[in-house]
């Protein structure tokens, strides 16, 4: 979807991925409009995390890379009763662990979970080593990717088979009995390139918690080039394994498992340097097995079953046409159809065999180069789905090149967030004592929810020094969000006897966010690089305290006022390099942890600073090359990024890469 749309765009993409591009000019991006554009011509602020930054960060999990993006926050939790994924990532807070207001794509395939919402990061059949770069659009991008590209959109671009070593292996060992092995094999020829990778990891999880896990992943990417110039790309992958969950030493302590797989097929035809067509189909599948028994008085035996097992499937087909109309205008338009299905009749959707949502879309984005100095981007997405009906997400932007080094941008956009299947059809129920006469509900939905809406205004500046060693992006923004979907507690639940708190999904809540963001990339020499990000956010709003429209609480604690990061990279010689990452997040709270009672700040986590370090030595031999690395994480001491009951302690890892590029 977002890969090169013609041979010209393909060349632009490859050029954008080299070190020289960052030294010479502002890099080309592919994700803002589905057109290959310079960042200075794009209608939105974009952060690019390239291969050098990925390696220098020392990260092994994709969400940790998002700490390099202005305004992002990452959460780590234990495998608890209601939290089957231990990692969350959000932009400007305003989230529980399932960050439902961010769209995430891998090579144009949405990995957004339609059942619960957000992204199951641990289920991505993708290793850090497979990623070429990540483009993060900060702000609504519904005009290009529709509903759920609400606060931000993330496009993960994997490495092309022709760009990776033929044989590659990696071994990682570290704190918490962390063990990981990665192996990849690739081949390239005149007409067919492919790569195949497998990985396995296991760890003990958080100290003192019952949340160890084992995960096995594999993925394949192949590209066939026909004699007539057509390109056929196909990918597939799977991920999954067993993991522990629940509170240690209680009845909730248990073993669970989850598995996912995907298949993706893309056909591209380039009829000229100015025109191309693309047809894409993909399927995502996820399943989780999680069922356990607990005891409720006056019973003396664990006879109440809690069933969180679930199966979710998405099928998606999309057509896209890209064309250049002379020297001034380029357009990309397309059509899309999708079906989402989820089955969890014994828990999440009690008594309902299957819930589903069908979606149909039409989109267009146009770039008009009015003059050498003035570029206009106009676009919109019209979509219809079975939950909220028809909606439209428009965007308009004007970029004015003050000089060859400086560009100012003004844009306005609107976006939507469609309720997840669980938000619309929730019927989370368990039968106390195994008796249907005593139902107990955790989450319920009356149905008929509407889409959340966002209106965003932005002023931006993209600037670079004359020698291109310094590139900076400044964003000033004002976002208005209304019709927010929340789940206030029902103060008087109808279920008797009560089964803890009961929550009901409603459209109630509004938020205003304004602030400034700074994204700076500075390379004083070929041996040194500094990447700095800063975000200031001023947020105010309210959402329901209880299932009562007359009683609300403030949203302010859910967004940190300040976040910042600095990644410093230094080559210490021909074969040695070092890097240090410093990440700061101000005081904040995740929605589900904040107290519903005044002063509403109980459950906040204090501000924290995270410090990571990496030292790498390149190994060379006659028929051998590799890298050995020492990585330290959380070196500034213990901190909390989700809840005060889950500390993030110091960790040390040793990595050995063989066949590394």
Can you offer a commentary on this structure?
There is one protein chain. This protein is mostly beta strands and 661 residues long. It has one domain: TonB-dependent receptor, beta-barrel domain (Maltoporin, Chain A, Beta Barrel). Helices cover 5% and strands 54% of the residues. The strands form seven sheets. It has a 22-stranded antiparallel barrel. The protein has a five-stranded mixed beta sheet with strand order 3-8-9-6-7. The two termini are 27 Å apart.
Determine the strand fraction and express it as a percent band: over 45%
* CATH fold assignment: Maltoporin, Chain A
Number of strands: 39
Count of helical stretches:
6
Structural class: mainly beta
How many domain modules?
1
Low-confidence stretches: 1-24
End-to-end separation in angstroms reads 27 Å
Pick out its properties.
single chain, 661 residues, mainly beta, Maltoporin, Chain A, 6 helices, 39 strands, disordered N terminus
